[in-house]
Design brief:
Radius of gyration: 19 Å
Bound molecules: uridine 5'-triphosphate
Number of helices: 11
CATH class: Alpha Beta
Structural class: alpha/beta
Number of domains: 1
């Protein structure tokens, strides 16, 4: 049976929409309440069975490796003081999980970031997770697991999609799955950031993918677009040259695009209203505003 145990986290983007916060803090370290976006993403991957985490980083992203490092001195201090709840919060990663950090060099786009993982991924299907697409952790919801299961079932690459509003179509990769209405459908075409009038549907590609290693050769032959970036969507389109090679799974769960301000604020409010320690006060506060 196919093994899918490696996940790539491209965290090499510039995060210009969150400047000045992202001058020194990677976008993926922005917290939803008290946990950074990257930690939610890593927890989703590990719950789905991933054993190797591959971070594609830029020079200013040391905070991400620091975040997952053990903190033995602090751990000992909290243990000595009997503060077990704080000890639990320090344990961001168990030791059985392998971490690999690969510098992207230059931010030449998502496709270029994924390509940097080629040697470590080798000849296996693998997961890609964009941590700024925050999927609210809820019982029974794991977008990565949904894709892994579908990829094993169809023996193909599978990407997560969700209906987006008309005003957001031109910000997404958009897929055409014909009239199929099941949870997982064969993709007929895919196009990066189309104008609304040219879009084949409203189904936007969101930040979860399970990809065949054949994507690396396709990325290597993908040219930069007008903005000088290598787009993952362009390589995905080439997967369609072979039949039954790329599927779309409709996301189950609530997703917020935390790469832009509105999505980030919405995610924070939704999560705060679900946090028993503050939900009532937050609801009262919003009501009084
Ligand atoms: P975005 O399109 O959100 O770009 O990248 P960005 O640079 O992070 O943010 P803005 O648009 O300047 O505000 C989507 C994902 O791809 C990663 C980002 O870190 C993010 O997780 N990425 C993007 C890279 O790893 N490298 C790149 O060169 C570009």
């Amino acid at each position: 049976m196919k093994k899918i145990s490696k996940a790539v986290f491209p965290v090499g983007g510039m995060g210009t929409r969150f400047l000045p916060a992202t001058k020194s803090i990677p976008k993926e370290m922005l917290p939803i309440i008290d946990k950074p976006l990257i930690q939610y993403a890593v927890e989703e991957a590990i719950e789905a069975g991933v054993k190797t985490l591959i971070f594609i980083t830029s020079a200013s992203k040391h905070a991400i490796s620091d975040h997952f490092d053990p903190k033995p001195l602090l751990r000992q201090k909290f243990t000595d003081e009997g503060k077990t709840e704080l000890v639990d919060k320090l344990d961001t990663l168990t030791t059985q999980i392998t971490r690999v950090f690969i510098p992207q060099g230059e931010p030449l786009g998502l496709g270029h970031a994924v390509l940097q993982a080629k040697e470590v991924v080798d000849d296996e299907y693998f997961v890609v997770i964009l941590a700024d697409d925050y999927i609210k952790p809820e019982k029974g919801v794991n977008a990565t697991k949904q894709l892994i299961d579908a990829s094993i079932k169809y023996d193909a690459s599978v990407i997560s999609v969700e209906e987006v509003t008309d005003d957001r179509v031109s910000s997404y990769g958009i897929v055409d799955v014909g009239n199929n209405e099941s949870d997982v459908n064969l993709i007929q075409s895919i196009v990066e950031k189309p104008k609304l009038e040219d879009a084949p549907s409203n189904l936007g590609v969101i930040g979860r993918y399970v990809l065949s290693p054949e994507i690396f050769a396709l990325l290597e032959e993908t040219q930069c677009d007008k903005s000088g970036e290598i787009q993952l969507t362009d390589a995905l389109a080439k997967l369609l040259d072979k039949p039954n090679n790329l599927y779309a799974a409709t996301l189950k769960g609530k997703r917020y695009d935390c790469g832009h301000k509105l999505g980030y604020v919405q995610a924070t409010i939704d999560s705060a209203l679900d946090d028993n320690s503050i939900s009532k006060q937050v609801a009262d506060f919003i009501h009084k505003l």
